[in-house]
Structure formats: structure tokens, C-alpha cells
Amino acid sequence: MASSLTKDSVTPGTPGSEKTFFGHPRGLATLFMTEMWERFSYYGMRALLPLYLVAPGGLALNAGTATAIYSVYVSLVYLLAMPGGWFGDRVWGPRKTVAVAGAIIMLGHLTLALPSSGTFYAGLGLVAIGSGLLKANISTMVGHLYKGPDDPRRDGGFTVFYMGINLGAFAAPLIIGTVGESVNWHLGFALAALGMGLGLAQFLLGSRHLDAHSSVVPKPLSAEEKSSTLRKSALWAGIAVVAYAALGLSGHYTLNWVLVPLTLLGVIIPVMVLVRIKRDKDLDRADQSKMSAYIWFFVAAAIFWMIYDQGGSTLSIFADSSADNRVLGWEFPVSWYQSVNPVLIMALAPVFAWIWLALNRRGKEPSTIVKFASGLVLVGVSFFLFLAPLSIAEGGHKAAALWLVAIYFTQTVGELLLSPVGLSVTTKMAPAKYASQMMGVWFLAVTAGDATTGLLSIAGVDLNRTGIVAMEAALAVVAGVAVWMYRNKVKALMGDVR
């Protein structure tokens, strides 16, 4: 990392004389590397997960159960981002929360590396909890490095930081996926633990470069709040332990007793959060109107992520069983498909940024609503494309790898239209009372989408059937067209936000 740090040739002690990371505060290097290694471990394990679940040498589950487990896991990661942010704000502060989160994630991957199906689900749970704790708080610390929202380096700093996400996501399937598929599944999970270990070591060694605010608990719990929180947590934990012990002792326990409640929570909690904010009498008419508009974006995003995240489950399982995973006669591991999206993000994101700037200068940049609608339509088109390899496979042939690459490409373009806009509109439309919580609300759209996929799988719906794929594709396109048709109504509800 030293080669990336530069020292300005000015008198020591003057502003700008400190070491920097590509012109940014040195602490960004610490957070960049921590996030890169954490994403390396997360995406590496995620690329292996559905393949391990269906493999004869893995858990040998059917595709529906594997998709349900995968979807529940991903929805939990994003669901737990809200309580993770709460821990950073009220209990430990961002820096301590990230350190503890890294240790929990590493322990989770080590548990997955044990050759025992009994400990596998515990490992998944630990990784989900750690990822939820880390996700919200590490981004908060990036913001602490800059002097308020008007610091001209701030946007560039977050851009550099998000490059770390995509570098980790790109490398992980190529390394962890190859070892897991070709050598040993559990060795692949152990590599994910090593990646998180490197990230945690980087964080602890470089934490001296972070802003002092990252150690501060912004709104510490009072003694009364702490006591109440512990009582409620102990009560719910006790109820869960008694209920599952009773199920186990009576011989009625099955995996669905865990999957069904978690998927239902993934759908119910996002609805409850939106209803609570919408019905808050402290919000004035303008904020109420903006929240009404935001619900349109939220529902559209949930539909988008429901289809998009099947790229790691439904598409991956299809590729494993029905695709010709070769290029120029050379066969590659199925998990490598998961590197297509991050490399396309890194290649296309600067292009999109340039296009929006060029159109903006001419007064022709599409509105937030049009971008959102376009992203939805494209994710629907990606599943219409999926119908072709499905038909080829139904005819008894292997579908070419380029079909899957084309699907991932279409989804990535849709993501670049919808995801950055969604993050931006969330911050712009957030009522002042909920400013710090609204990013967690945006993540709940992912939770709702993945939980819906999980519910469909648990209900026995075969997500690799032509009719189901066509229905999902049509749903996304219709939703995108509906958002576009009602754009003037939504625009009026948004008030002064553009």
C-alpha cells in the first residue's frame, strides 16, 4: 500500500503536508483495503454457496431449497444493516462495531470451513450478522474523513472506496471459486476466512489514520434504554430457544421452521418500517408527500433486486447443470460467472458518469424516474433473454456461456441506471428526522426482493421454469412502464427533489 501513498512536497505542518491516498486522507487506504478484503470474503463465499448446496459432495439439496437458503441469507445481510447501524450509533461507535463485525465474519467463514453440515448454517448466520454490522458503519467512517458534505474530495473518496468493493467482488470468484469447486469446498470457505482476516488486520493496524469521530458513540444509550433493550432481547431470544427446543424434542423440526419465519420477516419488516415513517405525525405535508413518492421507488427497487439477485442463485444453478461453461474449448468454473458483474461495473461506471455529465450540459439528462424505469425494464429484458438458454436446455442441449454473459451484461446496465440513482434519491427525500436511517431503508428493498424469491422457492415454485421466468420478466417490464407512465404524478409528489 505504501506505493499508493504520496507526500506533498510542501513544508511539514502546513495544510496538505500529510501523507495521502490518491490525494485523499490516508485513512481512506485503511477503509479501502478493509472493504476490499471483506467483499472478497463475502462474494467468494456467495459464489460457492448455491453450488455447494446442490453438489453431491456438498449438501446435495434440491435447487428450490438451495435457492431459498441463498435468498434468505442475502436478505438477512441487508436486513441486519439497520440494527448494525443502530449498534454503531447507540452502543459501540462505528470503529469498534467494524472491528467486532470483522471478527464475527471471519469466525463465520471458519465455521463454514468445518466439514460438517451441522455447523454450516451457524456459519451462514455469523457471516450475515457480521456483514450487517459492518455494512452501514464502514461507509459512515469514510464520511468522517472529510470536512463535511461540502468537502470537494468527498464524492471522489466514496468513488475510490466503491472501487475496493468491486475489486474484491471481481477477484473472489476467480480465486475462492476455483479452489472451492476444483480442490475442496471447505478449503474455499477457509480462503474466505483468510480474506476477512487480512481485512481485519489491515483495519486494526491502520485505524490510527482514521478520524477520531469514528470512535465516538453519537447517541449513546441511557442506562434505562440499555436495560430495556437487554430485557427485550433476552425475552425474544428465550422464546426462540424454547420454541425450537420444543420442535426438536418433538421430532417436528425441519429446515423450513427457520426459512419460513426469516423470509416472512424479510417481507413484513420493510413494510412495517415504511408504514411507521409514513404515519409519523411529526412529518409535515412536504415530507409526507416525498415518502409517498419514495414508496414507488422502493417497490420498484424490490422487484428489481428480486430478479437481479437470482444471478447468484437461479442462474448459477442453471449454469452448473445446463450450460456449456467453455471459452475456446477451455472449461472454467461455474463460480466465475459471478466476476462478470463487478468487472462490467468497473468498466461501465465511468462511461455512464461521462454520459450523464454530457447530457446534463445539454439539458437532456434523463430524470431520476426515467432512469429508474429504464433499469426495471432492463432487468426484465435480462430474464426474457434467459428464456433462450432455458429453451436450449429443455431441448437436451447445453446452452452457450455467452447467453449467460449477455444476461449479466443487461442486468449490470440496469443496475447502473437504478442503484446509484436509488442511493441518491434516498438521501435527498429522507425526512430530517430519519436522515440517518433512510440508507438502511433503501437496503430493505433488497431484503424484500430476496425474501420474495425465498418464499417462492419454499412454496415449491421452480424458478428455472420457462413460464415462471417469463412471468418475472413481464412483471419487471410492466412495473418499469408503470413508473414511466405515472412519472408526472411521482414527480409532483417529490416536490423540490429532482
TrEMBL record:
Protein's cellular compartments: Cell membrane; Membrane
Entry annotated with the keyword Transport: yes
Entries under CDD domains matching the protein: MFS_DtpA_like (cd17346)
Domain of life of the source: Bacteria
Swiss-Prot/TrEMBL keywords: Cell membrane, Membrane, Transmembrane, Transmembrane helix, Transport
Primary subcellular site in the record, as a coarse category: membrane
Membrane topology: Multi-pass membrane protein
Residue stretches spanning the membrane: 43-61, 67-86, 98-114, 120-138, 159-179, 185-205, 257-277, 289-308, 336-357, 369-388, 400-418, 439-461, 467-486
Keyword Phosphoprotein: no
Family: Belongs to the major facilitator superfamily. Proton-dependent oligopeptide transporter (POT/PTR) (TC 2.A.17) family.
PANTHER family: PROTON-DEPENDENT OLIGOPEPTIDE FAMILY TRANSPORT PROTEIN (PTHR23517:SF15), RESISTANCE PROTEIN MDTM, PUTATIVE-RELATED-RELATED (PTHR23517)
UniProt-recorded name of the protein: MFS transporter
Organism: Streptomyces virens
